From TrEMBL:
GO terms for molecular function: catalytic activity; FAD binding. This is Glycolate oxidase. The keyword Flavoprotein applies. Keywords: FAD, Flavoprotein. Pfam families: FAD_binding_4. The keyword Flavoprotein applies. Residues 1-178 form the FAD-binding PCMH-type domain. It comes from the Bacteria. It comes from Burkholderia pseudomultivorans.
Length: 358
């Protein structure tokens, strides 16, 4: 049975708030469910709060086209419930953080879950979006069908911009059918052996959909047709895991590992990067390409390691550093400033949230 959810078009009120902020030269703090409020820098100055949760609802969904369009304030769990009823899913597995996360926040932060190395990132599934720009115009980028790629690069550019370039009001996403079969396995291995084995299984073409190492145990998720899942299980070995909620708790940073009071860092590096360079407790996700680190190490040391390994590090604990995102090279910083000047000429959208320079 199809579930019905609340649908409200509040775009006119949001546009009016942006227009008033432009007139008053008053910055806006764009906010949805607030689940990522502690990620990034505190906006400077904080300004007025623009709450997108009043603008919600699924405005278009045709399962046969594998495309869904939802307003920014739509709770992510409502979108996922609608997709699940049709046997479909968001392959990028974005965190819902206890059910409070919104579609707009998913798009603005572009955080992807455990399936990301094999399925793709949030921005890979963005087909288009609507945005209130820095002149209070309500713009549309991209399309609502997979063949329409006009403006697709702009939509991808806005994904992960933390609201610094405009107020996202609507997002069109590509979705996929849910896998026919799933198996979750556990193997007792050290981190180095775990990363090497996952790399070998990837080269062998096994249908991996998750690989996480913590506490001396490698958890592996395989998905696909029943035959391919069984063959992968025979190859991987190990024991069937009995914790069905493991992957959703990993996605939402709710495993016991994350209870450690030390600052939390996400270190994104090539899977083959050294595992024991930094002090602290480590959870290795994405087959080694994403490391969650609980450490008291100096922020500069963490970001230096990430840069030298060919990646980047982000601090997920507010107040530890004034530069929670990896510092940008001068040339790339100039590009970011130019984009900010073009899309937000009055600098009213979440100023300073990503970097102090814009």
């Amino acid at each position: 049975m199809r579930r019905e959810f609340e649908s409200i078009d509040d775009s006119a009120a949001l546009i009016a708030q942006v227009a008033a902020a432009i007139h008053d030269r008053q910055p806006l703090q764009i906010r949805g469910g607030g689940t990522k409020a502690g990620l990034g820098r505190a906006a400077e100055p904080a300004g007025r709060v623009l709450d997108t949760r009043t603008h919600r609802g699924i405005v278009g969904y045709d399962p046969t086209e594998l495309v869904v369009t939802a307003r920014a304030g739509t709770p992510l769990v409502e979108l996922e419930a609608a997709l699940d009823a049709a046997g479909q899913m968001l392959p990028c597995e974005p965190p819902s953080f206890g059910g409070a996360a919104t579609v707009g926040g998913m798009f603005a932060a572009a955080l992807s879950g455990p399936r990301r190395p094999w399925a793709g990132a949030v921005r890979d599934f963005v087909l288009g979006c609507r945005v209130i720009a820095g002149d209070a115009k309500h713009l549309r980028f991209g399309g609502e069908v997979m063949k329409n790629v006009a403006g697709y690069d702009v939509s991808r550019l806005l994904a992960g911009s933390f609201g610094c370039l405009g107020v996202v009001t609507e997002v069109s996403l590509k979705v996929l059918p849910k896998p026919r079969a799933t198996c979750d396995l556990a193997l007792a291995l050290d981190a180095s052996d775990a990363v090497q084995r996952v790399a070998a299984w990837r080269r062998a073409g096994l249908p991996l959909a998750g690989a996480c190492h913590a506490g001396g145990v490698l958890r592996v998720r395989v998905e696909g047709g029943a035959g391919s899942v069984q063959a992968a299980r025979d190859t991987i070995g190990g024991e069937r895991a009995d914790d069905d909620a493991f992957w959703s708790r990993l996605r939402d940073l709710a495993l016991p590992f994350f209870d450690d009071p030390r600052p939390l860092w996400r270190v994104s590096v090539p899977a083959a990067a050294p595992l024991d360079t930094l002090p602290g407790a480590q959870l290795v996700d994405w087959g080694g390409a994403q490391r969650w680190l609980k450490t008291d190490a100096a922020p500069a040391d963490v970001q230096r390691f990430a840069a030298q390994a060919g990646g980047h590090a982000t601090c997920f604990t507010r107040g530890v550093t004034d530069a929670p995102f990896q510092p940008l090279p001068p040339a790339l910083l100039r590009v970011h400033r130019q984009l900010k000047a073009q899309l937000d000429p009055h600098a009213i959208f979440n100023p300073g949230r990503l970097y102090a320079e814009f």
